[in-house]
Amino acid sequence: MNQKSDLIYTSLIAAMREIGAVKKDRTNQSQNYQYRGIEDFVNACHPVFAKHGIFISTTIKDVKREERPTRSGGINIYTNILVSFKFYAQDGSYVESELAGEAMDSGDKSTNKALSAALKYCLAQMLLIPFDMVDSEKDSPEMIQVPLIQQASKKLETKLDLEPLTIESQYLELLHDMKDQFNKTEMAKLMPKSNWTHETYAKGIQYLNSKKTN
């Protein structure tokens, strides 16, 4: 760590505050999973880094390569690298992060891919880049506004068999009796969440009773 000043700290903190979420919008077709690509991280970080005068230098400290045969008779080249990334501020102060990168390719791109993987996870971990922005309303105890994603009927019936006659059980029993009045989306919203309070269940019972009489 360069000790000349603390500018890199304030610059990285400022960047961290501005860089938004990077969602898993890409799909690996062969293995069917969602992921975040290096392009997504660079696109998110570049304008903010430029604004705050941050740049990165890269040093490969160790490389291991291995050829492995494929089922089709070809060759895949596996590359493992240890990379040092230095995040510099305009005054020359920096912080350093070392990460490993691993990738394979049937041609000459395994090192490139390993570098991209190392940089992606370096940015993700250094700046704690979230997968998605947190919705402040998501965990609200107000029942009608909470988009709860839970299974409705089966979990409800199981819970009724296990719970004592608490206000939660009263609410669940009432909801169970009225479940045919609500569609799947409505039931998902009405299912309880772990942070619901006694007051939330009381409001829920009041709401269901109002629907029951209408």
Question: Descriptors for this entry?
Answer:
2 domains, 3-stranded antiparallel β-sheet, 214 residues, Enolase-like, domain 1, alpha+beta, two-stranded antiparallel ribbon, 7 helices
Describe this structure in words.
The structure is a single chain. With 214 residues, the protein is of the alpha+beta class. The protein folds into 2 domains: 121 residues, Enolase-like, domain 1 (2-Layer Sandwich), CATH 3.30.390; 71 residues, no CATH class. 42% of the residues lie in helices and 22% in strands. The protein has 7 helices and 5 strands, in the order αββαβββααααα. Strands 3-4-5 form a 3-stranded antiparallel beta sheet. A hairpin with a 4-residue loop joins strand 1 and strand 2. Helix 1 crosses helix 2 and helix 2 crosses helix 3. It is flat. 17% of the residues are buried. About 15% of the residues have low confidence.
